[in-house]
Amino acid sequence: MTKFQRRTFIGAGALVLIGLILALQKPAPPRVAFHLLRYTNDTSGLQALLQMTNTGKYLLYHLHTQVLTNGVWRRSSTQPPFGSFPPYGASPSILPARLADYNVWVPVPGEGTTWKVELEILPYQRGRLEQKVIAAFSTLGLKYPFYSRRIRSPGFKK
Q1: Exposed (0-12), middle (13-18) or buried (19+): which is 117, by Cβ within 10 Å?
Q2: What is the pTM of this model?
Q3: Using only C-alpha atoms, what is the Rg of the chain?
Q4: Under a CB-based contact definition with an 8 Å cutoff, are residues 138 and 131 in contact?
Q5: Where are the alpha helices (DSSP H) in the chain?
Q6: From its phi and psi, is residue 89 left (phi > 0), alpha (psi between -120 and 50) or beta?
Q7: How far is the first Cα of the chain from the last one, in angstroms, to the nearest whole number?
Q8: What is the CATH number of domain 32-157?
Q9: For residue 30, is pLDDT > 90?
Q10: Rounded distance, CA 19 to CA 74, Å?
Q11: CA atoms within 13 A on the CB side of 27
């Protein structure tokens, strides 16, 4: 093997290695901050006013509440309505990227003393057809296989 061939082989290997490292890197985590502003007790039960700040490029899609039970976080029995982001009651509910400080009322779970919010994150807004496909997957008890991430707030005490 000549000197030129050896250098070319080493250079190509280095490029492949750099490409693999870049391809396997995890994307940066979504930049969402959570702040519990206050609690209120109304006819529907205990509610928390939660402020979310979305400074990232991702869309916040839907939120769920979780409770700490025997050291494990589980979905609570009380969940916010599907249309938690404006326009209220809309499907899908989307909180746009790079939107500063958005306040949402979240029903506080009755079980446990510590709770948190889980957000589904999307890199794009899903269309109506995709929503129907997701609903079909859900009806069949299957997980929709395409991109979405979940992030969780810190735990809040009641």
Answers
A1: buried
A2: 0.61
A3: 21
A4: no
A5: 3-24, 128-139
A6: left
A7: 71
A8: 2.60.40
A9: no
A10: 39
A11: 12
Which parts of 27-142 fold into alpha helices (H)? 128-139
Token pair recorded at residue 5: 């061939």
What are the structure tokens assigned to 31, written together?
């930049």
Task: List beta partners, residue 35.
Answer: 51
- φ, ψ dihedrals at 11, nearest 5°: -65, -45
Q: How far apart are CA 98 and CA 148, in angstroms?
A: 18
Question: Is residue 89 predicted with pLDDT exceeding 60?
Answer: no
- Would the pLDDT of 83 be above 60? no
Q: How many residues does the chain have?
A: 158
**pLDDT (mean) for 94-114:** 77
| pLDDT at 70 > cutoff 80 | yes
Mean per-residue pLDDT, 53-78: 82
130 and 147 Cβ atoms separated by less than 8 Å: no
Q: Which two tokens stand for residue 110?
A: 């009755």
Mean pLDDT of the 119-135 span: 76
Q: Which two tokens stand for residue 73?
A: 């976080």
